[in-house]
């Protein structure tokens, strides 16, 4: 009886793994280091060894394992071919093909942000919905889109790259992608800090943010919760950008729910007080009823989604 | 042997019908008037009668017909339930359920713009691709999105409503949807005329457009082809808005090709000279290689796509 699936989330420093039952319960989680030497050629063999070890120590046979799902940081097409995961030193190759040869188990692979979105749909903030947009407000702004229960991969694996929607015509600084005025420049953790720095430089209005030795997104949201006037203005600007961007996303894919995760989302539901008014102002009326929810799986979204690829598809 | 499918495209004044073979060849096209009286309650019975008549006159039995596909002007969910097609006087009901009862044939239904997109993917400008965005530049700007060969319907049938992406913060006039600054206000046929009027009112620079008794999108593009300087400026503005909007769409669904149709597209491939530079300026680099193609099915895209729903899914 095939009762288990393994979810693997490959990050730049560690690979997270999880053993799941068919019902989506995680039975065990563990990590191995990501060895990036030799163009990342050790990563998949290390994963295969880690999976085999754990199967052996648990006395699990291949007949009991449905398969292994993998999330990788780079563009991955619907067949599981990765196109240059620069953080890992990887060129172009088919992940399932390579890993299957080493494990003799079914393997599926997809982009890590998309896999995390799938996890949030399956067992997280989007549970019960088949059409979701997962938004990760971290160092950058990532996205993962699920349409009718399947990952929207796109033609070249760039589906859901919503952090790079152009949202501001008057931006002097370049985004990491070299364009100017991307959503990521305002709605990421670093984006919130940029908005804060700009606002604080504008005038001398008193704010508890001025006494912080180092500004952070958390400091800004803590100040918003303390009803600091300047911080509230920054939050409004953040909400204006993100609400406008998500309104554009809604006009394209019309989701049931936006699931907001990543470091910035630790501020909690207060975010929605600032996103929602702008979203409603800009969105097509047919998409106005989309819900906003917080991601609930945190750093485990990747292993959940990876296992979910195996169990649900 | 089931060898034929019937495609039905319900419009505000006429219903177009087409008989197709499995290979996607249209064998016959005909039309009936759209009778909107009595809350549009005659429309589906009229369609059923038209289909039965044609089957009888051709000597076709039910065993030879794969089914009937329907495109309807309003939000239609994945089950074929229409939510208030105001142009037809329709409230909320399931189109396949009602039409199947009258025809005793399999029926599928979807939104007309989405069905037309499906037609362009199957037999038109997007043939050979499974991930396309069809853009209709008509009175408004419509859209239809195909992901992995299937229509992206969205949670409430508003998937692909790209005409209502917010694209301009400084727009005094309201869009038909009551928002301000929607893509449709600049890239539709009426939008091109608005841009032209505004440009002509700015100064007295000579232009052949000034001698036109009535401005139209066609007049503007004819003037562009004649290298009228003012018309070229208008075209650049049009391209800037549309390219920016499609770049946002690309960051969400990452299509292989944009298929451009509708009245404005009659100007031809010269449109791409104005859309493409703006698209490339704003788009995420992973989506830069999307192609632009003209729609080829014209007003028949709807019947093609409707038949395609039956033959391809």
Describe what you observe in this structure.
- Two copies of one chain form a homodimer.
- The two termini of chain A are 18 Å apart.
- Chain A is elongated.
- The first copy, chain A, has ten helices and twelve strands.
- In chain A, strand 8 and strand 9 form a beta hairpin.
- The model of chain A has no long low-confidence stretch (mean pLDDT 95).
- The longest helix of chain A is centred in the C-terminal third of the chain and has 25 residues, at 229-253.
- With 313 residues, chain A is an alpha/beta fold.
- Helices cover 38% and strands 21% of the residues of chain A.
- Chain A has a five-stranded mixed β-sheet. A five-stranded mixed β-sheet of chain A has the order 10-9-8-11-12, with helices on both faces. In chain A, strands 5-6 form a two-stranded antiparallel ribbon.
- The A-B interface holds A 75, 78, 131, 143, 145, 147-148, 150, 152-162, 164-166, 177-179, 244, 247-256, 281-282, 284-287, 289-290 and B 75, 78, 131, 143, 145, 147-148, 150, 152-162, 164-166, 177-179, 244, 247-256, 281-282, 284-287, 289-290.
